Structures are given as C-alpha cells and as structure tokens.
Structures
1.
Amino acid sequence: MKFRDFIAAMGIGLASLLAGCGNPQSMFHTAGPAAQRLAHLSAFIFILFGVVAVITIGILLAAGLSHRGTLDWHAPWNASGGHKFVLYGGLVIPGIILFVVFVLSLQRMTLFPLHRKQPMSPNILVIGHQWWWEVRYLRGPADQRFTTANEIHIPVGRPVEIALQSADVIHSFWVPALHGKVEMIPGLTNYLRVEASRAGNFKGQCAEYCGAQHAHMRLLVVAQPPAAYQAWRNLQLQPAQTPASPQAMQGREIFLRAACPLCHTIRGLGAAEGKAGPDLTHLAGRQYIGANSFPNDKADLAGWVTHAQSLKPGCKMPNLDDFTGPQLRALVAFLDGLK
Ligand SMILES: [Cu+2]
C-alpha cells in the first residue's frame, strides 16, 4: 500500500468515526446500564492500550535513536538483561494487562448480562426472520399477550427480559444504545436484559450477515414513560380498527381477496392469519415499514405493496401489482387506518 493510500484510508476511517459520534445508532450514546458498562469498559481498554502503544513506540524510538551503527558495535541480544527484557516485556507485563482486562470484564458484569441464563419469564420474545423482526409480548395471561413486528416498545426505567430466537438463519440482535450484540440462533433461545434510562427512539440493526437484505433488517426500540407505554400496550391488545371511510372499507375487502392474508395477520379480520410476514394489526402505529427501512406513509405503502421487490430486492414479499389505481388507493387507505 502506498503511503498516500494509507493516509487516505486513515482519513476515511477517522471521518467515519467522527460521523459515528453524531449518529444516535452508536454504542457511545448510551441510554441504559448495560450499554453504559460496555462503553466504560471500552473507554478504559482504549486508554490502557493507548498508553501501552505510546510506551512501546517510545522504547522503539529510543532503541533506534541511541543504537546506531552495525551489530558489531553492540552487545549481542542475549547479553545480560536481554532475556529478562523479553520475558517481562513480552510475557509478564502483557499477561498482567490482559488478565486485568479479563477480570474487569467479568467483574463489571459486562459479559454476564450479555448472555444471561434463562430468566423466570421473559417479557418479550423476538424472533429473527429474513429480514424482519417478529415481536411477541409474553407477560401475563393469554388475553394480555399480543404479537407485533419491527418496533419494540419498552417502559423507561424498568428492566425488560428479552428472549431471542430465529426462524431461519443466524441473526443478531443489536441496539447499541441499550446493549451489546446477542446472537439469534435457530433451535436455541438466548436471553438479554435491557433497561432504558431515558425515553427515546433507539435504532438497532441485525448484526450478523443473514442474506441479501441483511442491511435492511433494522430495528427500533421506543422507550416510553410508563403511562405512555401502558397506553401503547392497551392499544396493541385491541383488534384492528374498523375502517373509518367507505374507501378504507373497500380496501379491507381488497386486502382479504388478495394474497395478503396468506402471509399477514390482522387480528379481528377473521381470515387474515398468515404468519410468513409481519403482523399488520396496528401497522399504522409504527414509524417505518420494511423492517424500519422506509417511512410509513401512503406513498411508501403504495410503493411497498406493488414493488416490494424493487425496494427490498429478494425479500419474502412478492410484488403485488394486480390492482387498478382506485383499488390501490383503497388498499392503502385501509392499511393507513390500522392505528
Ligand atoms: Cu438478520
């Protein structure tokens, strides 16, 4: 690599690092205890290894500057003190430093909350699908449970136990502001505990390459004050709203007659119980569609329904463009009314 290329690469690296600082999807913008512990630990390790690097470079420079000339002018490397220098500098000191880092990771409980053992009863089960997130709220009796997708609401200031599974390949659950990455592995359930210390929208991402649309497998955690969370919960428990206009009413018939119910559930709509795609019962309450890849508005809904394969090529929803203009508008009016 040419020196100029090296400098350019460093520049790009630094720029993306700085850009990362302004990005809320960053492990340095913590919003909960688990993420904070991880951020503190990484800051400590960064400083520690920075000091080690400076000392090492100092020794190299000192050696280079003070020992000039040919080897014949100097004592051989195994002269007195040489072995000891290698032993301490190369083995003992690095050993101590790595041991300290190891103990700190354990002691600060950074590793344990990452892969907790099975809690008594997880609040939420998140199932990774290619390329979206199924979200089941499990707490309480059957009539207090519901399923939604892609947007996870949690109350501020309360620990939430999340169970993680996968329906197909290995995914990874990562909301940097709240927690480290935890794998979602087919046939295995992993657990983590998140707690948000402030209200806000925290973006996340599938962090394990899982196929063509891995980059569009985004996640949103909405941390709300307990009262707002409770209100959201109560709404989610309701079946879908009855369409408010004749146009939306017509849209519902179109939805039921098209292929949609084969893959999507809309609670309260009888025949719509498909499980291959996200639950749409309260679709309009979500901020984004396509696993948080596109805004949830009428234009994007129309584009998504007719051209999912252009917006998210390879995704498991086909293009459904067999509608006339008025039919499509009615269908979108129906979807947009699913508050
Ligand atoms: Cu994934």
2.
Amino acid sequence: MRIWVFAEEVDGLPTSLSLEMLTKATSLGDQVAAFLVGTGSAETMGLLAAHGAATVYHLDPGDALPSSGAAAALAELAGTENPDLILFGLQPTDRDVAGRLAGRLGVPVLSNAVDIIADEGSIRVLNEILGGTTLVETAFSGKGPHLIVVRPKSFTAEPGDGGDPDVVAVALPDTGHSGSARVIERHTETAEGPKLEEAAVVVAGGRGMGDEEHFSVVEELAGLLSAAVGASRAVVDAGWVPYSLQVGQTGRTVKPTVYIALGISGAMQHLVGMKDSGTIIAINKDEEAPIFGIADLGVVGDVHQVVPKLIEALKARG
Ligand SMILES: Cc1cc2nc3c(=O)[nH]c(=O)nc-3n(C[C@H](O)[C@H](O)[C@H](O)COP(=O)(O)OP(=O)(O)OC[C@H]3O[C@@H](n4cnc5c(N)ncnc54)[C@H](O)[C@@H]3O)c2cc1C
C-alpha cells in the first residue's frame, strides 16, 4: 500500500506530529513517502527518512501561505502517483490542505483519527466522540486516495535506520487569487522550559488556582520539576496565561509521563487532551471532582496549602 504523510517543517526540523504519522504509516504500508512543506533542511530529510519516508516530495513555498499551492501540487502528484492513503495532522495548515485537496479530488476526509486499521483491503479509522468516552469506527468506500486527519500523540514516533531519502522537488503551482497570500511576519512566542507537547512532565493549573497571581505557583512547581506548564480553558479565557498553554479539545493534546492537575475540575473537554498521560496526579479540594475519576494519585486539599508545601519539600531536597 502506498501511503503519503503531509509533513511540516518548523525552525528547520519536522514537527513531531509528522514523525508520529510516518511511524504509523510504516506499520500500514510498504511504500511510504512524505510530502514536505518547508525549506527542507538536511536534518529534516534525515529525520523523515529515519521515520520511514523512502521518498520525500519537497515543496518550498518561500513566503507564500502554503495551503492553496500545496493542495494543488498534491492533487497533481496524486493523479500520477496514485497513493492509497494520505495522512495529515490535526493542526491548522494540514487541515487547510486536507480540505482543499478533498475538494480538488472529490474524495472525503476522515478527521480526528486516533487510530488507523488496514486489513483485508479495507481502511478503517477510529475516532473519539463525546469527549473521548466513545470510539467510532468508520470505513472508507469508493476511490482513493483516502484522506485522514490524525490527532497528535495518537502514535509514538520511532526512528529506524533511515538513510538518505529520494528527494523529488515539487514546484509551487500558480493557484491565482487563492494562492496569492504572503507570510509577511512571524511571531515566535518566547517560552522557557520544555515544549508542552514534548515535555515528560506537565504541571497544569485550573480556575481553582484562584487568580493570575496565584497561578505563578504552577509555574514555580513546573520549574522545579523541569516540567512544562499547562492550563485549563477557564484559565486561558480569564487571560491568566496564553492560549498556547491550553490543554484539551480545543487546545493541545499532551501525553507526558506525569501530568499534575492543580485546581482543575476535569471537564470532558479537558480530559480529552491529557487522559493518555502516564501517571495523572490531581489536587482538588472537591473530592467529587471528575478529575479524580482518571487520576492515579489524588490529593483532596486546597492547592494554596498543598502546592507550597510540595514546593518547599522539593527545594529542601535540592
Ligand atoms: C466546545 C468546548 C471546548 C472546550 N475546550 C476545552 C479545552 O480545550 N480545555 C479545557 O480545559 N476546557 C475546555 N472547555 C471548557 C470545559 O468545559 C471547562 O469549562 C473547563 O475545562 C473548566 O476549567 P477548570 O477545571 O479550570 O475550572 P472549573 O471547572 O471551574 O474547576 C475548578 C476546580 O478547582 C477546584 N478548586 C477551587 N478552588 C480550589 C482550591 N483552593 N484548591 C483546590 N481545588 C480548588 C474546584 O473544586 C473545581 O473542581 C471547552 C468547552 C467547550 C464547550
């Protein structure tokens, strides 16, 4: 089976989601290729190959907003190369390209996939509904290529031997008005510590932290544990922290070894973004809080008393 993975490059490296999808693709198909949008650094090429891409179709969009051109280029290539499956990540550019490509090819997209099953000639997709409490299995019928949008952290990126991929340069097609938007400036949010999606430990705070000032305790604890800071939507909506820290259905999906939830109730929309974490520790003053339903370790208590004590103990340990 021929599988393509839509890969994005950020700061000279492929996104972790691209590598997760490539790893899954190699378990499903024998001919795996990446369609890379970016400058195509040597490091990116090496990592794509190490995660299973024998071929990399490389489109460098320059300063063009890439979605329109990438979809047109993919449609043209798919017409000649006939991939069975094209995987996209659940992130803005990928979703934009998947939608445009579906329109161009006249095929459906299955979105929010947490697993893909290919056997006996059928390709089926599992996705979670009702806040992750119910799994739905959907099978493609009709002509391909089948387009799937994959949720981050559904698969684990595992590098193999790699080598040098065959790189095929793809020209940016002229798509008229829809391709005329240009990227004129980029803002990179300054952040300290590990990235939220890649951190081994996440310390997340919710409305129970009280206010913006007290939220700094979450940051202090995270600093001591070399952890990333996360937050519930209530906190983001209140303006205490930026949206980039939001964990959940409309925020980031994380899968750290340890997730510490401070003053977070555990609404379904939050759980869906962190429930696959290794060990979940919750501190909440309400023993009925739903977060305790999935916590491995729960402390019923006031965050303003428990967390400072925890910080004190960690500092004493040195
Ligand atoms: C379409 C949609 C998408 C959404 N997407 C997201 C999402 O991506 N991420 C997300 O998080 N939410 C999301 N939400 C919002 C979600 O439904 C909840 O409203 C939100 O998660 C609640 O945040 P919270 O747990 O911080 O606040 P609350 O639900 O208000 O919980 C606060 C908790 O703190 C506890 N507490 C209070 N004081 C203390 C104290 N001193 N010590 C200890 N515990 C204390 C309380 O007992 C309570 O359990 C979404 C909602 C919708 C409708």
3.
Amino acid sequence: MTAGQILQLIRTGSCRTRKELIEFTGLSRSTITERVDRLLDAGYIHESGVASSAGGRPPSVLDIDATGRLVLVADLGAAHAHVALMDLAARTLAEESTAIRIELGPDPILSWVRQAFQRLLDRTGHPREQVCGIGLDLPGTVDQKTGRVVRSFLMPGWDEHPIGEIVGAGFEAPILVENDAKAMALGEWWSHWRETPSLLLIKVSTGIGAGIVIDGRIYRGVEEAAGNIGHVRLRETDDRVCTCGSRGCVASHSSGLAVAADLGLASSRDVVHMVQAGDPEAIARTQEAGRTLGIVLATAVSLLNPGVLVLAGDMAETREHYLTGIRESVYRRSLPYTTRNLDIVTASLGERAGVVGTAVIVIEHVLSPATVDAALEVAEPA
Ligand SMILES: [Zn+2]
C-alpha cells in the first residue's frame, strides 16, 4: 500500500491515527511510520488534537492539511465568468466574477481568466507555487484526453483551442477542463447529496445541458456526450429552429434563449427578471418550457432512477416556475414507483455550483493516490 493510498484512508476518515492505520492495513509499524512521515513532510497531512486513549501517551490525530495547497478555478458560462481561489476543502479564499460573452472567443475570455487568477493570488498574498491544480468549466463538450472543446454550439472559435496550455502557462500545476453541467452535478452531489448514489442535474440557461453523477463519479459516456439532452428532437415535423441547426429540439422550446425569444427578450437573464417581477406572460411561458423539458426528463428519470433531480442555471431562479413545470411532466409521465423517492429541487449552490464542482474535480485529482505518489516520487526519488 502506497503513501497515496494511505492518504485516502485518512481523507475518508477510515483511519485517524497511526495505530488505526496499522490495524486497518495490516502493515508494520515501521512501514506506516515511513509512509506517514513522507505525507507529513510533503504537507499533505498534519497532526492535530489528540484522540481519546485507554491510557499511556495519547496518539495524535492525522488529518488532511487543506490549507497548504490551493486550487484556482474558473467557471465560464455563455454570458459570465467566475473565478475563485480555494483550499483543498473547497473553501473559497477569494473570488471574482464578470459579465462577458463566451462567443467573443477564447482570446479575450482566457486573458481575463489569467489576469483574474493573478489578482486573486495578489489579493490574498499567496505565491503561484502554492497552486497545485487549476480547473475550468465551460458550456461545451470537452474531450477529456486533450482538455479541448469539441462541438459546442454556444462557443464559436473554441473548438480544439489549447485552453490548458494558455491558462496554465507559468504554473507548475495540472489543468483540468470540464463541461459545466457535469462539474455542477459533482459540486451539488459533493455539497448536499453524498448519501444518494445517483444524481441528475439539469442546467438551463442560454442552452440546456445535463450532468450525471453515479456513485460519486461523473458519468461521461463513450463520446463524453452523456447529458446532451438539449438536442433531443421532440417532433419530426416541428419547424422551430435550434442553435444546433436542427429543428424541433427540446432546447428550441425550453432553453432560456428560446423562452426569451418568444417573449421578445434578449437573454435568459431577462426572462428571470420578468418572472421575478411577476409578469404573467413570462411566468406562463416559463412553466410551459419546464413542462416540455419534463417530457424528456421523464425518460431520463425512468432510465436512471436517480435519488435527486437538480435544476441549475438561470431558469432555476424563476421562483420555482420552471421547476414546477418539470415536476408536473416528470411525475405525470413516470411510474410512481420510479419517482416516489425522487427529489426535484433547485441547485443549492446557486451560481457557485460551477466553481465548487470544478474545485472538487481538481481536488479529487490532486489528492488521488496516483497523483500523490507521483508527486512524492519527484520530491524524493527512491
Ligand atoms: Zn438542437
């Protein structure tokens, strides 16, 4: 058992002391001492407090050192960018956001991200060397092997752009790029739903995307395309044109952009403001959009039988009107047995779901046994 694997036992709370590690792993005292010392020296863990003991010298408690290493994350939406500096417990040390349109292309957006990252470090007085991982989520499909965007309708000019190389320049840290709905799904699961084995998150802002978390992991599908439900075509004869170029996609009826267009508005944010102001037409159109998306979600729910369906994105802020529409369709079109334990709720992290989810992805990578063992190997070659 490697030092990285020992770290997981401490992280998960399975073992809190050297004695518990010896008992749990069956390894010798000298081996455990050597592994724990390496983790202590490298700053992955620290000794804190004192565990209750039956007598003799009380053993000190081993715990993750969440504050020595930091992560930088950026959450990019169709019309916003949000960056945060966080510790390894996903606590925010500093953050910043701006209204910026992703369709401007990668150069101005990534330039803002790089400058904002530096401002967060300067404001908090942390050196770049403390950053052990960088994450970025955006509203497109991401090839996990290359960290590049493939086939995004909302992000012209981003396909195959070397995002990681640009954002990570000057840092000695891995860069992870993720689809926004997938990151949000993991963030919500990690923050509030760790007891449930299956979570389905639907993000509805300008477009529609979904993220699936099964047993604590993001489910991606063979082409990274799991969750692309916005472009399911409802009716072959439908003449509503979608952003993908096809006709009759559920997004062409139910996305924030579609609802905005029907109301003579420019964006999903405008819809939110009108619904919050109590406009009856905007409320009716929003509920209808939720019901239409609910038709597709009933299929997803019947297929996955999740413990919770979370609505995120701009349309989650429509005073539950969009959510009500989803509930109506999902409950009416699914077997009661499938939905009797299903919560259908709005995202509890709100607009922070993206940064938290992306931070969790980075933290899980940075503290994984393989990454930790590789880092220890570099620090002190055998
Ligand atoms: Zn479409």
4.
Amino acid sequence: MDPTVDKLPENTHSKTILSLNAIGKRFGKVTALEDVSVDIKEGEIFALLGPSGCGKSTLLRIISGFETPSSGELLLDGQDMTRTAPNQRPVNMVFQSYAVFPHMSVADNVAYGLKMEKTPKDEITDRVNQALTQVHLQDFKDRMPDQLSGGQKQRVALARALVKQPRVLLLDEPLSALDAKLRDAMRLELVKLQESVGVTFIIVTHDQSEALAMADRVAVLESGRLRQVDTPSALYQKPVDAFVADFIGRVHTFNTQHISLDNGSVTALVDELDSITLPLTELPDGIQAGPQPESPAVIAFRPECVSVQLATATPPAPDAHIQFNGFLGDIAFQGQHSIVEVTRGDQQSVTAVVNHQELHTLQGQPLGTPVLASCAYSDLMLLPPA
Ligand SMILES: Nc1ncnc2c1ncn2[C@@H]1O[C@H](COP(=O)(O)OP(=O)(O)O)[C@@H](O)[C@H]1O
Ligand SMILES: [Mg+2]
C-alpha cells in the first residue's frame, strides 16, 4: 500500500452527519475520554485509531448509546442524541466477535432485529434479501453459521446491521477475529461494500495499516484525547507531533538541544548530529525557539527517506544531508523494496527502506561492511515531543 495516495479526494464528503462536541467520559477516577470534538461526514469511512485503552470503544459506545458521556453532546443530522436510547438511534453496531447466533440460519440471523421490531413479514423478506445481496451472501440464506468461513460470518454480521438501514454503521475492530491473509482481503471488501451502500462507517482499530488502507479520514486517539484528525496521507506526511509520527508508520527521532529561527531559516542543534538547517521557513505549532529543556522538540525522518551506500562510494552533499557512519546489518527482502539495518555500535541504529538498485550494491556484502546512511534535510520533520 502506498500511504501517500488517498482513497478519495478530500472534499468528496462535505455534509456533516455526526457531530461530537467536547465529549468527556469518566469511570470513577479513570478519565476515558477528554474534550473530544470532531465532525464526521456523510458517506465517509472514518477510523478511530489508537493504542489499547485509549478510549476507542468507549467513544463508539457513546455514539451507539450504550454509554452516556459525562460531558459534551452528540448531534446526529443536527438532532441532539446525547440521551437518546440506543434502539431509538439510526445507528448500528457490528461487534468484534460478530455475535452471530449459532442456532439460526443466515437469513434468520439477519431477520432477527426486524422480527423483534415486529416489521411486517413481506417487508422482512425483502429487506433480508436486499441486505444479503449487498454482502454477496444471497446464495447462503439457509446455511447455518458453522457452515460458514470467518469472512462469511463477518458478512452475516454486517448484513444484520445493514438490514436496519442505519445512517451510521459502527464497527469495533471488525477484522481482528480473522487471520492475516483474510484480513487483507476483507479490508478491500469492506471498502467496496461501503462504497456501494453509501452508509457512513465509523471503524475502531488499533492497527494503523488497517486505518490507513481503509479510511477516508483517521482520528488518532491517545489517552482519551484526539491528537490529530486527518486524511491518511496528511497524517503520514504532516503528523502534528512525534506520537502521531511514530504511530503512523515508522520514524527515527533525535532530540534537539537548541532551535533557532533567523531570517526565515530554521536550524536545530541535534543530539548525535551537528547543526541542521531544516526545510522550514517558520516554526511549527507547539515549538519554541531557544534551548530545548525537559521535553525537547525532535527531528524525525522515515526509513523510506534514508539511503544506504558503501562507505567507499562518493557521499551525498554534506550540507544537505544528515549522515550516519555505520555497519551493514540485516537485510529483509520484501519484494518491491527491502529493509536494511545500519548498526552504529551503542548509538541507535538507522533503518532504511531501499529499492532494487540500492539493494544491488549492498547484496553479497558481508555483515558489518562499513556503510553510510543518509537522509536529505528536505525530508526532515521538526515535531513537538510525543
Ligand atoms: N465500564 C468501565 N468501567 C471502568 N473503566 C472502564 C470501563 N470501560 C472502559 N474503561 C476504561 O476506560 C479506558 C478506555 O477503554 P476503552 O474505550 O475500552 O479503550 P480501547 O477500546 O481504546 O482499548 C481504559 O482505561 C479502560 O480501562
Ligand atoms: Mg476497544
């Protein structure tokens, strides 16, 4: 996957369907969510991404109505839903474990919610058929769940939610019960399905590659707070801080000791490196010039921007590249590209993602061969600390 290419242009979805305004949630002494505000757009796939315990499921449960926020409000299509009961909200949840009833056929599983609501029989038949067609299970109506694969069970769970014709579908770690290969296939399938039904999806995941691959926009949560809400490419290219940079892909970070801004030129004195001129004309939000005390700003760069060459080759221009002398470590061949480790004694090693050509000059060299890793100044980011 190329994370620099967004699935859709940014302005495809413009109408707000769901507004979260300053949502907070406390469980006794635990603050699960704090001041969460975001507008979710009609028809988008919106991902809530963050490490375990950051509040993703709590936020999803607040949207579904299974949990009440301690503060803030929630508007759906402009209507206040903060205290509305779950079954009165045009919102449906697909659970992590799918919760497919084992003793009911596929069709009965999908019909269950409508039967509970005493929907007329003919309408149930039509809507069940339509939902099963949407998830491509029209030929599996009479099967029992134990005759289905993991992916098919997950589609039954989806059909069961879609049959209620929700405005917003909530999916909590929808692919985590599947094995790795099926998970990749289901990502694409879910995105295609969402495009064909057009229902707004809010997906909770702790897997950044899943969020980047599937979502139109991603909210990165950490300890109950939203760090950044952006398109996948913006998160990757313009992370607001070192936490987001590290959570979205890999990044090397080095602490700064001093930052200065003179005549539209930003320079930083960096641990292990010399003074560096950064590709900036002003200081990013949250960063002050001067000495960097306790929690210093960091310079960061991605392994994709690092080149590796033999120490005997001509080095790149030293005034435009940071350079690390080191030794050739492990090379992991990954098809289109390879990952090369450059070890540096007791200093942090540097990882590079290299193409075939670069790999060619390194392959066959013994482990420990002296090499030079470098990264252009233009690929450096200056970020507030994590
Ligand atoms: N019912 C509850 N009672 C007490 N603490 C809870 C409850 N639900 C969640 N929490 C706490 O709130 C925080 C966020 O949990 P959760 O939303 O489940 O995180 P995530 O889904 O991101 O892993 C955690 O510290 C968790 O222990
Ligand atoms: Mg969770």
